[in-house]
Write a structure and sequence with these properties.
Layout lengths: L3 E5 L3 H12 L3 E5 L11 E4 L2 E4 L15 H7 L9 E2 L5 E5 L2 E5 L3 H11 L4 H18 L4 H24 L2 H5 L5 H8 L8 H12 L5 E2 L2 H16 L2 E3 L4 E7 L2 E7 L2 E4 L2 E4 L3 H7 L8 H6 L5 E2 L1 E8 L9 E12 L2 E10 L12 E8 L3 H10 L2 H19 L7 E7 L1 H8 L7 E2 L20 E3 L10 H13 L2
Helix pairs in contact: 1-9, 1-15, 3-4, 4-5, 4-8, 5-8
The structure holds flavin-adenine dinucleotide (FAD).
Flavin-adenine dinucleotide binds next to helix 1, strand 15 and helix 15.
């Protein structure tokens, strides 16, 4: 029977939940506080340059990684207008005179690193072995052969899984003796994530996944929005949900602009942590909710973007620049710059120009929030921009004198536009922590569902799209 479903948030999780709820025959309305789809996975235009503040690699971009790929196709996220690019090397690591490359092929990667640092041979061979083991379990079934491999591999995989889950990536990389190999592997992803996340990522590259859909975050989100609208859902922008209305143990609807909007089901597809803190009159009486409402460790970044009047397409599309000395900015010590450029991709920059982004990854929320509260936010942003530009120019002298536009999005920016807890955009899956975080279906309130990045560690786009699907299926 057709039910009335309200979805809070038109991020990737909300769009996915909308599409699948509609496909199940329900009447669907999405309320989004902002003015566009995509949530934190978005891009914006400044002085003719597009700055992408979301996707860098998409898990499930390849059909080899199911069920995520299926979700991206079904929701219209991946279409003919955004073919996936699989950059190889994934990134180039630079440290002084040293250049190392993160190849997708684990054999090539480890061989080059062994040639460079024979002292790490043993550890690198183990890394190769483990990436190959993990990759068997990422791959789609691959018929009888694939399943046989999985079953035979279980005695190796199970203990490996728990070993990697028990240590942080930071601790894992400590085993490498060569400082450059250590730094390069440290810059694959956030070091606070457990080592399983690191291996999952390397295995994803190895099996030919983790690509970048051309057009980036905005095109992918727009594709999903179009699919959702064509399916017959309503999306209402500039519509912030103020409260979830609950009567006894039944959800009744949501409050938007002071008006009650009735529904049989409400799917919370905004940051669950914020929702628990802001949208319930009475705290949700579930153990996980009491825990999550206290806060959660998240990945955060200050995204510094530059419009450069120069064609930089000769540079690798992703660089990890290891700094000679750590630099303290916004109260955080940075050792490596994550630099992305979009030359060669249409729509990112005017002819002959390049759009660059630099990810300053780290928890700087308190610094920016304090600045916001005491009125020094804009001045501090300007200082950060100047310092960041000077720093980047020291390592990429070719941009000197060519920068015509700059922009900075801080965790406070992400919080303001997307209402995400402390400006975080995915959770940190710490060592020894359970991967499960938020149940899709509330046990205490009938009709209440949850989707989005917090549902499964460590979050990110695949978790959002898959949890939207699961929330819709549970109606
Ligand atoms: C710089 C950066 C790089 C990233 N790189 C990657 C990557 O390479 N790969 C990857 O997998 N992930 C990446 N991520 C993470 C990924 O983008 C997010 O985890 C994912 O997009 C989260 O989607 P979501 O729908 O769960 O939540 P959100 O994107 O937070 O969507 C929630 C939506 O709800 C809306 N909302 C909030 N409160 C309300 C309210 N009260 N009423 C109405 N609407 C509301 C918000 O405005 C937002 O649109 C990156 C994120 C960033 C910022």
């Amino acid at each position: 029977m057709q039910k009335k479903v309200i979805i809070i948030g038109a991020g990737i999780a909300g769009l996915s939940a909308a599409f699948y709820s509609r496909r199940a025959g329900h009447e669907v309305t999405v309320y989004e506080q902002g003015n566009c789809p995509g949530g934190v996975s978005t891009s914006w235009i400044r002085s003719g340059f597009t700055f992408d503040g979301g996707i860098h690699w998409l898990v499930g971009s390849s059909p080899r990684l199911q069920p995520f790929h299926k979700r991206w196709l079904e929701t219209g996220a991946l279409q003919a207008n955004n073919p996936v690019v699989y950059a190889d090397p994934v990134f180039e690591f630079r440290s002084g005179d040293v250049t190392l490359r993160l190849w997708r092929d684990i054999d090539r990667l480890t061989q080059e690193l062994i040639d460079f640092a024979p002292e790490d041979r043993k550890a690198l061979l183990a890394l190769r072995r483990h990436v190959k083991t993990v990759s068997i379990y990422l791959l789609d079934g691959q018929g009888i052969n694939g399943w046989t491999k999985r079953i035979i591999g279980l005695p190796v995989f199970v203990p490996l899984f728990f070993r990697l889950q028990r240590i942080s990536s930071r601790l894992y990389v400590e085993r490498f003796k060569n400082p450059n190999v250590k730094e390069m592997l440290s810059s694959v992803l956030n070091l606070e994530q457990n080592a399983l996340s690191l291996f999952g990522t390397l295995a994803g590259y190895y099996i030919g996944d983790n690509g970048f859909p051309t057009g980036g975050s905005r095109r992918l989100a727009k594709n999903m929005e179009k699919t959702v609208l064509q399916a017959g859902c309503k999306i209402l922008y500039h519509s912030k949900v103020e409260k979830i209305c609950i009567d006894g143990n039944h959800v009744k609807g949501v409050m938007v602009n002071g008006c009650m909007q009735p529904a049989d089901y409400v799917i919370v597809a905004m940051d669950t942590c914020t929702a628990l803190r802001e949208l319930f009159d009475q705290p949700l009486q579930e153990k996980w909710a009491r825990k999550l409402s206290k806060g959660i460790d998240s990945e955060q970044c200050s995204l510094f973007s530059l419009g450069v009047k120069k064609n930089l397409s000769y540079l690798p599309s992703t660089l990890r620049i290891h700094l000679k000395e750590p630099v303290r900015m916004a109260g955080y010590e940075y050792t490596t710059l994550w630099v992305y450029h979009y030359s060669g991709q249409d729509g990112y920059a005017p002819e002959g120009c390049s759009s660059l982004t630099v990810l300053f990854q780290g928890d700087t929320y308190d610094y920016w929030k304090k600045a916001k509260d005491d009125g020094s936010y804009l001045t501090k942003k300007q200082e950060f921009v100047q310092e960041a530009q000077k720093l980047l120019t020291a390592y990429l002298p070719e941009i000197d004198g060519c920068v015509v536009a700059t922009d900075l999005a801080t965790p406070v920016t992400y919080e303001r536009y997307c209402n995400c807890y402390r400006g975080g955009y995915m959770s940190i899956w710490h060592a020894k922590q359970s991967p499960f975080n938020v149940p899709i279906k509330s046990k205490s309130v009938q009709g209440l569902r949850f989707a989005g990045m917090r549902t499964l560690m460590s979050g990110g786009l695949p978790v959002s799209v898959q949890s939207g699907y699961k929330a819709a299926k549970s109606l």
